Q: What sequence folds into this?
């Protein structure tokens, strides 16, 4: 499983807008804050606008603002706007293998059960988190997650080596 660059950067841009809500923020400011090129930031914010998560305004003081308060926009909504679900009913048809028939495991597939459960669990997690939850910072977000899913003992940090649990 991977989070795409568009999903990650879309989340970061929305968090910037949430921090400044209800102020309108120019795409140049958003791009600069996140170290992105303006065209790429504009492309991602355009996707978020088409999904109804942000509203654009033109003119000298134009830019973008969240379409709803940060506490009403879930992380799941953002991922749905920018990417695909982890697993959907069309997955088996798209990955059926060679030949003209359907998947050889169509009638009895233990993997389908695993993938659909994973999709539901991740969807539940993302639906339960809003932009307002995330603007409070990493430590507070980690504490909130630990209350619901006590899986790890320490919050990850930027200095945690890849592949090493904190």
A:
């Amino acid at each position: 499983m991977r989070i795409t660059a568009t999903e990650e950067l879309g989340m970061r841009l929305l968090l910037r807008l949430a921090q400044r809500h209800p102020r309108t923020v120019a795409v140049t400011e958003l791009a600069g804050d996140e170290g992105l090129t303006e065209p790429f930031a504009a492309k991602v914010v355009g996707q978020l606008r088409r999904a109804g998560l942000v509203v654009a305004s033109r003119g000298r003081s134009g830019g973008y603002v969240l379409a709803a308060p940060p506490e009403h926009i879930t992380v799941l909504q953002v991922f749905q706007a920018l990417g695909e679900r982890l697993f959907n009913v069309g997955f088996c048809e798209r990955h059926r293998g060679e030949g003209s028939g359907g998947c050889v495991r169509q009638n009895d597939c233990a993997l389908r059960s695993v993938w659909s459960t994973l999709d539901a669990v991740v969807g539940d997690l993302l639906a339960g988190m809003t932009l307002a939850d995330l603007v409070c910072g990493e430590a507070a977000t980690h504490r909130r997650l630990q209350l619901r899913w006590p899986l790890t003992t320490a919050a990850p940090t930027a200095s945690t080596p890849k592949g090493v649990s904190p």
Q: What stands out?
A: The CA atoms of residues 3 and 83 lie 9 Å apart.
